[in-house]
Amino acid sequence: MCGHARIRSRWGRTDLRAALASPATIDQAIGIVIAGRCSVEDAFATLRAASQRRNVKLRVVAGELVEATQRSA
After folding, report:
1. What is the CA radius of gyration of the chain?
2. How far, in Å, CA of 57 to CA of 28, rounded?
3. 14 burial class (0-12, 13-18, 19+ CB within 10 angstroms)?
4. When comparing pLDDT for 26 and 3, which is higher?
5. Which of 5, 16, 22, 23 has the most C-beta neighbours closer than 10 Å?
């Protein structure tokens, strides 16, 4: 396997892991936002707005929120 194929293969696995972990992380982040007493729809809209404001993927915003919450616990 040439060097480029190995790199693509490694990135593909990383992206797949991130994609598979994303729904769970996003669900956890929604749960954290809901703890502030809002609906699921409002919680998702809050995360989506933060994602758009910062121009980063929703899964990244969700991951940061989950990590920050775990660190503060």
Report:
1. 15
2. 16
3. exposed
4. 26
5. 22
Cβ atoms of 61 and 29 within 8 Å: the answer is: yes
The pLDDT value given to residue 25: 92
What is the residue-averaged pLDDT of the chain? 81
Task: Check pLDDT > 50 for residue 63.
Answer: yes
Count, residues in the chain: 73
From the CB of residue 63, how many other CB atoms can be counted at a distance below 10 Å? Answer: 19
pLDDT value for 12: 54
pLDDT digits (tens, 9 = 90+) for 45-61: 999 999 999 999 999 99
The amino acid present at 61, given as its one-letter code, is V
**Is residue 64 a contact partner of residue 58, using CB atoms and an 8 Å limit?**
no
Chain Cα centroid distance, residue 62: 4
